[in-house]
Each structure stands twice: as C-alpha cells, then as structure tokens.
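Model the whole thing, not chain by chain.
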Amino acid sequence: MLRATVQTTEPRLSMTKRTGFHVVSRVLCLLPLMSWTLGCASAELQATSGHVPVLLGPVACIGCKPGAAGPAQDRPFDAEVATTITGIFGQSTLISSIQGGSIGEVADSSVGDLCTGEIRLDSIKASVFHIETFVYSRASYYIGARGHAVTVPGGVCGLRLYPSVEAPSGRVSP
Amino acid sequence: MRIASSPFPLLGCLLATSLGCAGARVSVTAHTAKYPVSFSGAIRDRGGVLHATPTLQKVGGFVAARTSVGLAYSTISLPGTWDVSEEINRQVQAAGGEAVINFRLAVTGSCAALNNFFLLNALPLWPGCAPLEASGDIVVRAGVPRD
C-alpha cells in the first residue's frame, strides 16, 4: 500500500513541477508585455492653437514687473488633458480626452474679445497613476489647469494675429 | 481534492486578485519667474499690444524636466511641487530672451516600468513616479529695442 502511494505521488509531483514552471514562465512573459502596452502614453498640456495669451506665473507681459496687480477676473477657466490606457492580458485600449479639442481653443472661447482677453493660470496639477491586477491594468496620465479669464484694459491686437486674422467665431477685428 | 491540494490554483487566485497601484501627483508653478510664460503663441507687451509669431523672433528653446517620486500609492509625492521659475529665469536670461511662448507641459510614460511593476506595486512603500517635461520657445520682439 505504501509502495502504491509512492508510485502515484511521484508522477503527480513532477507533473506539478512542470505545470508550475509553465505558469511562472507565462507570468514572467506577461509582466513586461503589460508594462510595454501601458508605457507608451503621455498627456501634454499646450495651447499653441490659441490666439490669446495663456499665462503661467506672476509676469503678465513683456517688460511687466512680477506680481503687478492684474485686471479683474472675468470668469473661471478650467481645462484638462488626460490619456488613459486600459489593458486586459496585453490587449490595450487607448482613451484620450482633451477638453474642447485643445486648451488653446478653450482659452479663445473663454474670453470675450481675442484682442483684449487673456487667461491667467492659478494652478496646474499633473499626475500619473497605474493600477493593475493580473488580468486588468489601467494607466492614467492627467494634467489639469485652472485659472481665470481677464480683460486687459487697453489691450489691442498687434500687426497681425497669427496664424491669420481668421479667428474662431469671427470675433477678431484686426 | 486534487485541486485543493495543489498550490497553483491558490497562486492563480492570488495573482488574479492582487491589486497593485503606483504613481505620483505634482503641482507645477512658476511663482518666481521674471519673464512672462504663455502656453499659446501670443504674449502682450507693457502697452497691452498683443504679439504673436509675426512680431516675435525665436532666440532659443526652453527645455526642463523633473521626475517626482510617489509613495503610499501616490498619496505622498516628493517633491509635490515643481517650480519651473529657476529654469525659466536661467534659460531665458542665457538666450537673451524676453518671454517664453508655446509653453508645453507633458507627463510621459517613462516611469511605466516602475509604476507597473506587478505585485511589488501592491506594497505601499513601492515608489511610483511622474516624469514631467516642459518645453517652449524663448522669444524677443522683432525689431523692438529692449526695455
């Protein structure tokens, strides 16, 4: 009876060992795969398509003193960019969201007049967060900007408003 | 009975249900910048005149980067604030510029291997990180004598 038990146990152990190595090797293979599928993302805050200044910091204009008292706040400005990737066993899905398509366009639409309006940012927050289980993973990249729109007294457009005078909504009179 | 006596279903369950997370959160400021910084391509002068690409001349590029480390599932970030003022002041002064336009701020995926480190990122002391990159164009007003 004892001999029979040994004979049935040994093959099971070796089978288990093989299965164990198989599982471990698959896990080790999946780890970098999961990292790679979630590692190619980024979120970028930019407003290059905007026509109004979107200012960060205490200096509002060329030649101005830092911290000079600014004009009264018109309305709050809030914009964010976010990129999220979710993955299930390496099958990743990219989800990007940019409020209003670009924060430049959001800025343009937040001011009353493109020649006198501008955005002054009060805070920018950025974050990266990865969460995962063995079967599911999610990577979130986020940048949010908050501030306010102001109307600059005596503000005027320069020689030309780039890239052309054809601004959104036709609110620019060059 | 055979399934219950095998350790691998248990291992599988642990792997399937183990939850790990890591990352970092950063505030970006420019509280002591001596030059104006605009995310768009437009900036005003002291007279309120709006300048943009046609009346601005690029004299250099601005680049800065910083990585913050997050602990306790990103609850604590070190440093929690990135003040880009010092880099702005240094690089704009070195280039002889008057302002930074087309400022961009990006949070990139170069920490993915650390943030995504399976199983170990379940530990609260496992560090995550948030790599930030800032860039822009250092400009002067074309044909205008400096203030």
